[in-house]
Design brief:
The protein is about 35% helix and about 15% strand. By secondary structure, it is of the alpha/beta class. The protein folds into two domains: about 250 residues, Aspartate Aminotransferase, domain 2 (3-Layer(aba) Sandwich); about 130 residues, Aspartate Aminotransferase, domain 1 (Alpha-Beta Complex). The protein has a seven-stranded mixed sheet, sandwiched between helices. Strands 8-9-12-11-10 form a five-stranded mixed sheet. The longest helix is centred in the C-terminal third of the chain and has 20 residues.
Length: about 400
């Protein structure tokens, strides 16, 4: 007699990460198989005509894709999810699924820069107008919504300058006007921020970051409410989207340890951010989980935790001094993306049109990995020595 299956929706978020998608494993194995396949055979002409079988073609779904899609939807608290080959593919597909010529998009001014390029390039060419808004506008966004505003897009916190948005207030205003709210939930990873509980209609992640978690696969996710699922699913299939089976498997594997990894990232980041806050070379630390940091009260209200990504603004120094700081670092790599096990540091200059970002000193974004935070602080201290020597 087989055991009864647990009701995963009744379990804690930590347990869901471990249990989700396990129904697709066979023959006693803990993990589902990785299906590499395009053609799916039908047993007879009746089945071929009706297409009424679980799997009909590789791009339309496999046991591998269904396992990870169910896991992502359960983590996010949404109705259903789809996997895409990158975070940018997820953003593009979600927007194109709901926008058409003549529509208006309200985009947060802190948005991921490639998404800004999408709005100002491809979407503009298709006759879709984008307006950028202050991430701290909150309920005031109601004054920017037009009769043809179809989507309001949020990213909280902003992945460079870390503004935390009042998502429930924005959701209320958007829904009152008949618009949808999309949330880029990569920083909260669907685990530390429950976008649907706060009013989102669609939650998007660059799963390349924390869901994968090991800097070895590209992946995007789009999780939908029940109301947005069918329109999105149709657009997803019409655009021929699908992710590779090995990358989907790596995403599912990463989800299993998401809770413990995020906990360690947060612990390390708080340690290093507090230390940086005390450095004479640092003007401010932008990490919402820090007490008295910008956005802390909203973060404390809406988030269950924080990840390893934050930014700092240095006190004014020369280009040479900032380069000396970065070049001295040995444990912090200089590279884009984040969310992996490794620590990273990059300078940034955000593009803005609705708001201003012009600090006097350099802006640096840090991702704090899984190393010993004392080693990371020692590495940073050597960097500051180089900075001061070059000033």
């Amino acid at each position: 007699m087989s055991k009864a299956k647990p009701d995963l929706s009744a379990l804690s978020p930590e347990t869901r990460l471990v249990a989700a998608g396990r129904d697709y494993a066979e023959h006693g194995f803990v993990n589902p198989a990785v299906y590499h396949g395009s053609t799916v055979l039908f047993p007879d002409t009746a089945a071929l005509s009706s297409r009424q079988q679980t799997y009909v073609y590789g791009r339309r779904g496999t046991p591998t894709s269904r396992a990870v899609e169910e896991a992502v939807a359960l983590v996010e608290g949404g109705h259903n999810a789809k996997m895409l080959p990158s975070g940018m593919a997820a953003i593009t597909t979600a927007l194109l699924a709901f926008l058409k010529a003549g529509d208006h998009l309200l985009m947060v001014d802190t948005v991921y820069q490639p998404a800004r390029h999408l709005c100002d390039g491809l979407l503009k060419g298709l006759g879709i107008e984008t307006s950028y808004y202050d991430p701290l506008i909150g309920k005031g966004i109601a004054g920017l919504i037009r009769p043809n505003t179809r989507v309001v897009y949020a990213e909280s916190p902003g992945s460079q300058t870390m503004e935390v948005q009042d998502i429930p207030a924005i959701a209320e205003a958007a829904h009152k006007a008949g618009a949808l709210l999309f949330v880029d939930n990569t920083w909260g990873a669907g685990h530390y921020f429950k976008a649907f509980e706060h009013g989102a209609d669609i939650s998007i992640q660059a799963a390349t970051k924390y869901l994968v978690g090991h800097s070895d696969a590209m992946m995007g996710t789009v999780t939908c409410s029940k109301e947005t699922w069918e329109p999105f699913r149709h657009a997803y299939e019409e655009m021929g989207q699908f992710a590779g089976p090995d990358d989907m498997y790596l995403t599912l594997r990463g989800i299993r340890t998401l809770d413990v990894r995020l906990e360690r990232h947060m612990k390390n980041a708080l340690n290093v951010a507090e230390w940086l806050r005390g450095r004479a070379e640092v003007e401010t630390v932008l990490y919402p989980a820090l007490s008295n940091a910008p956005g802390h009260e909203l973060w404390k209200r809406d988030f269950r935790g924080a990840c390893g990504l934050f930014s700092v603004v240095l006190k004014p120094c020369s280009d040479k001094a900032t380069a000396a700081f970065l070049d001295q670092l040995q444990l912090f790599g200089m590279g884009y993306s984040w969310g992996g096990f490794e620590s990273l540091a990059v300078p940034f200059k955000p593009q803005r049109t609705a708001t201003r970002w012009q600090p006097e000193g350099y802006s640096l974004r840090f991702h704090i990995g899984l190393e010993d935070p004392d080693d990371l602080k020692a590495d940073l201290a050597e960097g500051f020595k180089a900075l001061n020597s070059a000033s």
